[in-house]
Write a structure and sequence with these properties.
There is one protein chain. This protein has seven helices and five strands. The protein has about 210 residues and is α/β, with parallel strands linked by helices. The strands form two sheets. Strands 2-1-3 form a three-stranded parallel β-sheet, with helices on both faces. Helix 2 links the parallel strand 1 and strand 2. It is globular and about 55 Å long.
Length: about 210
């Protein structure tokens, strides 16, 4: 079992939107088999982050909040992957943020994603989503900081919960910990317990 298994059993309406193709390693069929309604470039025809996220922010999210409760919404961006594209709508703000300095394309693309995430978060708050009714998670699907790119000296797994009280939790974690963490936050109980991972907000140390 995996996270969608428990969400489907709990009655969640599940949706996934990706900018690129979901065909990589059979991801699209994997999501469909587990109850997700999916859209990728072959469905919505959008090839860049800003226009797809704008569609989700303006059209999809309001409909889910109004008509599809409870729901799980999974979004995956594309432009922070090589060749690290920065949408023109982000360029001027990036210039202000970095005061006209030259920055690596990867940092420019990441800051564009920051702007998109801010717009999504503001819309979510406007629609009444908050820590009382929503688990909002930002996570990387691989460790993109550091390594060959040399942006940061160490690779670290970072999960961000924007609706939680501002706090830095330095507890070591792995991807195995995401499922028990989210299920605990959603008050979804299950037996038997998963063989790996534990709630990142607890004091318990899970199996490596």
């Amino acid at each position: 079992p995996c996270l969608p298994t428990f969400l489907k059993m709990s009655g969640y309406n599940m949706y996934s939107f990706m900018v690129g193709a979901m065909k990589l390693m059979g991801l699209k069929q994997f999501l469909i088999d587990r109850g997700y309604k999916t859209q990728d470039i072959f469905d919505h025809g959008i090839s860049r982050d800003v226009p797809m996220y704008t569609m989700v922010i303006d059209k999809i999210l309001p409909d889910l909040v109004k008509n599809k409760q409870p729901f799980a919404l999974h979004l995956a961006n594309e432009d922070t992957h090589p060749l690290f594209y920065t949408d023109p709508v982000c360029v001027e703000k990036n210039k202000k943020i970095f005061k006209g300095r030259d920055i690596p394309p990867i940092i420019s693309a990441f800051n564009c994603m920051d702007q998109i995430t801010y717009n999504f978060t503001q819309q979510a708050i406007k629609l009444g989503l908050n820590d009382d009714n929503t688990i909002f998670v930002i996570y990387g699907d691989h460790l993109c900081f550091g390594g060959r790119k040399g942006v940061f000296p160490e690779r670290k797994l970072v999960n961000i919960f924007p609706f939680k009280l501002k706090n830095v939790n330095h507890k070591p974690g792995t991807y195995y910990d995401l499922v028990p963490t989210l299920l605990k936050q959603l008050n979804i109980s299950y037996e038997p317990q998963l063989p790996f991972g534990t709630d990142l907000f607890s004091d318990e140390i899970g199996n490596p």
